[in-house]
Specification:
CATH topology: TIM Barrel
Number of helices: 8
CATH superfamily: Aldolase class I
Oligomer: single chain
Structural class: alpha/beta
CATH architecture: Alpha-Beta Barrel
Length: 256
């Protein structure tokens, strides 16, 4: 379904869709799955629009946006419509978050970030660190990063399905921590892979490395692959961590 960008929210999660062609080199190439016109949670403490980019190289069982994984799926909204929307929201929004999928997969991201900054908005990024070299290119233009560190490096293949994913994620972590850019490091607690002691140790390691904020997120069956939801078997974050570390933010899903 294709709806006008200034009229309708159309897609689970409030993603705004439109039809038409994008404009400008680089940014116009983005495959954009949708736009959330207002979010109070994607960038803590900021009012933001969230732009969801299509495609991710990893296959995490708990992914709650599986429709955004396939890179062959075409975009649902052109960059020109996103830009026009933002022009109308100057003075009303603090910033724009690029999310996914994995937004750094798309080479048009740096140009899009630059255009957003030229419009006077702050720019945030959600990333799992799958492309650390591309992250290094865009990082100096960012005001905030939400980086997913899914596990100790040795457990990454069990979560993402790719053996090299852990090395890439931890290279991205080094980049973010060294950049001086405001950030939070998010760990999705996966009872099918993690043990409570491993999460506690990981939090301590992230703090020791210099992470500004560490967030523990609850894996949710809603939207996940059916086989993962079955393996989760109703287990929740506090089944592994009845008393999470005191220096973290804990984000739990509502009971079903």
């Amino acid at each position: 379904m294709s709806l006008a960008v200034d009229q309708t929210v159309a897609r689970p999660g409030g993603l705004l869709r439109a039809g038409g062609d994008g404009t400008g080199p680089g940014a116009s190439s983005l495959a954009i799955a949708g736009l959330a016109p207002l979010s109070t949670c994607d960038w803590p403490g900021r009012l933001a629009a969230t732009c969801f980019l299509q495609g991710c190289p990893w296959r995490c069982g708990y992914c709650h946006n599986p429709g955004l994984i396939d890179p062959a799926v075409p975009g649902a909204i052109p960059w020109s419509a996103v830009r026009d929307f933002l022009v109308r929201r100057r003075g009303l929004l603090d910033g724009v978050v690029f999310s996914g999928g994995e937004p750094t997969r798309q080479p048009g991201l740096p140009d899009a970030v630059g255009q957003v900054r030229e419009l006077g908005f702050g720019v945030g990024l959600h990333t799992a660190g799958a492309y650390p070299r591309r992250l290094a290119v865009v990082l100096p233009q960012l005001d905030w990063v939400g980086l997913d560190i899914k596990a100790p490096q040795t457990q990454y293949e069990a979560i993402t399905g790719l053996a090299a994913s852990g090395a890439k994620a931890y290279a991205a972590l080094d980049l973010v921590l060294a950049s001086g850019v405001a950030h939070e490091i998010r760990v999705t607690v996966d009872p099918t892979v993690h043990r409570g002691a491993e999460i506690t140790a990981l939090v301590a390691d992230l703090r020791a490395a210099g992470a500004q904020a560490v967030v523990l997120q609850e894996a949710r069956p809603l939207g996940a692959r059916p086989d993962y939801a079955a393996a989760l078997a109703g287990r929740r974050l506090r089944d592994l961590l009845p008393e999470p570390p005191a220096d973290v933010v804990v984000r739990e899903s509502d009971p079903a």
